Sequence to fold (347 residues):
Amino acid sequence: MADIDRYRTGDKRLVDALYRRVFGIDSAAANRLRWKWQYNNNPHRPDDGPLIWLAREGQTIIGQYATMPVRLSVEGQEIDAAWGMDVMVAPERQRQGLGEVLFRTWDRNVGASLGLGLSESSYRLFQKMRWPDVGPVPCFVKPLTRRALRRPGWSVAANRLLSAVTLPWVRLVARTRPLHGEVRTIRHFDDSFTSFWERVAPQFTFAVRRDAAYLNWKYIQAPHVRYAIAMLERDGLVAGYIVYRHLREARGRVTLVVDWLTAPDDHAGLLTLLRWVDREARAADSDKIRAFAMHAGFRKLLRQSGYFAVKSSMEFVAKINALSLPSSFYKTTDSWHVTLGDSDQDR
Ligand SMILES: CC(C)(COP(=O)(O)OP(=O)(O)OC[C@H]1O[C@@H](n2cnc3c(N)ncnc32)[C@H](O)[C@@H]1OP(=O)(O)O)[C@@H](O)C(=O)NCCC(=O)NCCS
Fold:
């Protein structure tokens, strides 16, 4: 049987080789680019090294469970938690129970074990192990141009007809709306964002602590993507922020709303930040804007802003160990704040 213990500095080469075998050369190259930032520079990295477990057999590494430690606010209490991320078992050793041993080791050592955007195999394993399934995190799209509604697999003529029919509606939802507040872009989250988080955190039953240290690490220092960030200020105080980026996809240009925070009852605040992103997306020539939102109030505001729900593939599981909670906790997720920015989904 394999021995499971924590990652040590000298393991990097063998872990890289296993990663290449399981996920392929391109993913392994992307992983190497992110690794130091993702595991070593995380402000919640334990003093004794990254929160990664390895399955060893002699000198060989045959499995890994790499996680992202965060602080999690649950019903007003803050606990240690970790997103499960790069989990892998050597192909010739899969389906022999090793994955389950790695999942259980991670779960035993954290106050809450969380998984987002799962592969088919890990989702099935979470289900087999009866992890509370709270997903998927709903996905929303706002069309900005008639290209936004193109359907893959439809003929050019059918897509042209669809564009012509939907154009008046697209123009209506995409029209410019006024900003009701002072919004400006920033390149650093100062301590006032920590105070803001502390003011609004009790209003969510589940949310990763979004203080300045976390936000700077996640959205300013990330080496693999460049984010734009806008903040909303009211009476000299932070009232919210929104993180977004533009990218080209196979079917057009997309603006991703990656993360945001406002008080859930500050409707004007989030609407203003969303309208800011609308302008930025238009300036970047995007065909649509995409966002993921769990919170019922935020979902309502997205709809009010011209977003509509589309099928989401962002599966989400969560298991809180540090607090004793009724099973109903996992069924009432309307006040949970989870976005694309959580875990390492945007990579
Ligand atoms: C996910 C993974 C780590 C699980 O490890 P494992 O050692 O195979 O898992 P176990 O043997 O403990 O558990 C097997 C269970 O996992 C699920 N599972 C594993 N591989 C699966 C697959 N290819 N398709 C569907 N379910 C699968 C099933 O529930 C399976 O139970 P079953 O054999 O009774 O059907 C491994 O499959 C893997 O490395 N996958 C490729 C990398 C990956 O997708 N990582 C997850 C990124 S989010």
Observations:
- The chain is about 30% helix and 30% strand.
- The longest strand covers residues 60-74.
- Residues 22, 87-89, 94-100, 118-122, 124-125, 128 surround coenzyme A (CB under 6 Å).
